[in-house]
Amino acid sequence: MTLPSHAQIVVIGGGIIGCSTAYHLAKDHKADVVLLEQGQLTSGSTWHAAGLVGQLRSSASITRVLKYSVDLYKRLDAETGLATGWKMTGCLRLATNPDRWTEFRRLATTAGSFGMEMHLLSPAEVKAMWPLMRVDDLVGASWLPTDGQASPSDITQSLARGARMNGAKLIENIRVTGFEMDGERIVKVKTDQGDIACEKVVNCAGQWARQVGAMAGINVPLQPVKHQYIITEKIDGLSSNAPTIRDPDRRTYFKEEVGGLVMGGYEPNPQGWVTGDVPEDWQFRLFDDDFDHFEQHMLQAIERIPALETVGVKQMINGPESFTPDGNFILGRAPECSNMFVGAGFNAFGIASGGGAGWVLAQWVVDGEAPLDLWTVDIRRFSNLHRDREWVRDRTLEAYGKHYTIGFPHEEYASGRPAIVSPLYKRLQEHGAVFGSKLGWERPNWFAPAGTEPADVYSMGRQNWFNEVGKEHALVREKVGIFDQSSFAKYELTGKDAQTALDYICANDIAKPAGRLTYTQLLNTRGGIECDLTVARLAEDKFYIVTGTGFRTHDFAWIREHIGEGLDARLADITEHFGTLSLMGPKARDVLARVTDTDVGNSAFPFGHVREIIIAGATVRALRVTYVGELGWELHIPIAATGAVFDALMQAGADFGIKPVGYRALESLRLEKGYRAWGADITPNDSPFEAGLGWAVKLRKDTEFLGRKASETIQAAPLKKRFAGFTVARDDVVLLGRETILRNGETVGYLTSGGFGYTVGKPIGFGYVRHADGVTDDFLTGGTYELVVANERFPAAIHLEPLYDPHNAKVKV
Ligand SMILES: Cc1cc2nc3c(=O)[nH]c(=O)nc-3n(C[C@H](O)[C@H](O)[C@H](O)COP(=O)(O)OP(=O)(O)OC[C@H]3O[C@@H](n4cnc5c(N)ncnc54)[C@H](O)[C@@H]3O)c2cc1C
């Protein structure tokens, strides 16, 4: 096929992701699509995948994406005439110890929350389903009956045919060699056989996506890793419908294939491939068999399935696959290039994800915004740190090594740390800080008392920091503490049209005089919450915008891409210009008054205001806001002066017992006050009205703003879901999020956040209560609630108001 001179959308890569994206673009959107593949279709990672298809993930949206894959694989052959090899064998996950069993009980609850069938089985039940398996070391197993397996090449060919049937052109043996750019836009895709002009490009180049992206200046942080499995000869007595097995405590997986077994695993010592560019000539190629490295899996697998000791190995597959630093794939519009979209980095679940990933990516390409909350896989979750290939390699190999380890709550990665530290790092270490890392920043999670080791000890129940965090929490509620929040993302928007730009971008009214702050959501066209941040007006033509550490790239990209054409409004990321100290607690004013000459009394410096004040000789932007529900200020300090200001505050607050306080206390404090966290409680799937934040949407003003139309529609109809708080009377219940909410015994939703409130002395959860006919106050308060936690039901109380109100200094439970 010859290369057309123009296409609306060019998809690069003919693996499962490229073919699925092309299929959905052509079929669902009637787009004019050309797919370019440097070799033959499937010749990258796709042809040698093992073909296990699992669906349950910890994100509801990603689980939905994976469920869609299964639905598609079931019906695709009828549509295209090409079979996908889909077999709904179900999947068994084996547990050999109590912590793993707790993990599965929590997973079973998550499955229930997301509407997936999952059962917990006894060893005897497992034996009956899989007679060749040794089960004497099992505590039990989880059983997902709708999981299965498929043939990766067949699905891809079927998708390719479906794409062609709907008018897409798929061209093989043509290599993309570069892009012709107009600023940050691609205008032409260059190939070894000529150029093709286009409007949009979708980079589905698998492990090459990094180098293909680099040609347009974008960063796709992935790392190719060698992944091996074996295929055995026939095993007597093995059913062709045997469920797939995941045996995480032995780090192995199994799948039936033509009477034999496919067996592979995730070793703790993975072998990364190149950190530089991947060779171009890697069609249908594998690495040499590495039985020495694979032996660790073989030994474990024989223990599980003794027949493996004697059966012959037909073939070993040792192929590269792209993995990412957090084990999630990479989707969406690249922040550095306005018309390149990416679908790559599939962490050995590209076959399971392929159908659904192509569906949502196609929609994203056409609309320019994600069709649902895809934050966990969004390319904008990365930052410049992820341009460091060695850092990406180290973190990715750590994530690969953890693929099958028990996922303890609050677990932190260890590699590539410290990467970015605040000026207070050493000082906080001296206070016993136990750090976590967020987008590369070291941030104190909690402070270990003198004489104890400053380290987390992970467990499924209460962890070693529980009591210390309680003390930090109490200090903020009763006196005063300092949070180092220097990692906050900070932007400045300047120019004579800055207000006009923000009028359109922000749901709340930011058109206030200089010196005022506005808490606002930024909405998408569906009225869903894309960002949640604070806007401070510093001058007529200057706004200071502060958002969460992890949302730095995302929020910046969102704001920038929605600044109206031709407006005089320039957005700059100035995160590293300012350190941030949040001085919080009833004594915060007393402390602040001791270090500045500015009047910080309530009438001179009311809530929701910003002032420049001098502390320790530095000009500090003081924002009177709180995320903990106490009197307080966020102090934004020229970065070099952060240490001096911290020292001054610590000295001034000494007689109140002031101390630095960590992020785990912050979480507990904000839960009691009912403050929503973006990415968990409020996401692009949720509107401010459903989230109880309708008061922050300026519908009463005439101003046109992004998401207005959808907001009007949502507001006018009965809400089908509403955000509410829950407490559990038993104080040893560990809430983590995703626990099921039962109303009068029926599932009505699941928790989006969970934790412990030390002032109220109870576990606290937040989540949406759903009801198709509308959720009124009466509906909310008229039911009896339970939470399902690790598969056990606990009576719960619902709360429509914050659990703690500092003005009444009263606990409302
Ligand atoms: C050993 C092994 C076992 C696996 N088992 C499973 C499993 O059981 N279940 C599961 O879900 N997943 C599994 N996977 C993962 C799965 O194979 C991948 O996630 C999936 O194939 C990725 O598909 P892709 O389309 O992103 O990449 P690819 O299949 O690699 O496709 C990318 C394509 O882009 C093309 N390309 C690159 N550069 C250019 C260019 N410049 N111009 C034109 N074309 C270009 C390449 O030639 C390639 O064909 C496994 C992977 C391995 C290695």
Description:
- The strands form 8 sheets. Strands 4, 5, 6, 12, 13, 14, 15, 16 and 17 form a 9-stranded mixed beta sheet that branches. Strands 1, 2, 8, 9, 10, 11, 18 and 19 form an 8-stranded mixed beta sheet that branches.
- It is built from 18 helices and 40 strands.
- 25% of the residues lie in helices and 29% in strands.
- Among the domains are: 6-84 and 150-222 and 326-381, FAD/NAD(P)-binding domain (3-Layer(bba) Sandwich); 91-148 and 224-320, D-Amino Acid Oxidase, subunit A, domain 2 (D-Amino Acid Oxidase, Chain A, domain 2); 489-573, 2-Layer Sandwich (Alpha-Beta Plaits), CATH 3.30.70.1400; 578-667, 2-Layer Sandwich (Gyrase A, domain 2), CATH 3.30.1360.120.
- With 813 residues, the chain is of the alpha+beta class.
- The structure holds flavin-adenine dinucleotide (FAD).
- Flavin-adenine dinucleotide binds next to helix 1, strand 12, strand 17 and helix 8.
Counting helices, strands and paired strands, the structural category is alpha+beta
Tell me the strand percentage band: 25-35%
Low-confidence stretches: none
CATH superfamily of one domain, please?
FAD/NAD(P)-binding domain
Bound molecules: flavin-adenine dinucleotide
* Name of the CATH architecture of one domain: 3-Layer(bba) Sandwich
Specify the CATH class of one domain: Alpha Beta
Total number of β-strand segments?
Answer: 40
CATH topology of one domain: FAD/NAD(P)-binding domain
Mean pLDDT: 97
Give the C-alpha Rg.
27 Å
Instruction: Give the overall silhouette.
Output: globular
Q: How many individual helices?
A: 18
N- to C-terminal separation?
Answer: 70 Å
* Helical residues, percent: 25-40%
Q: How many strands, which pairing sense, and closed or not: the largest β-sheet? A: 9 strands, mixed
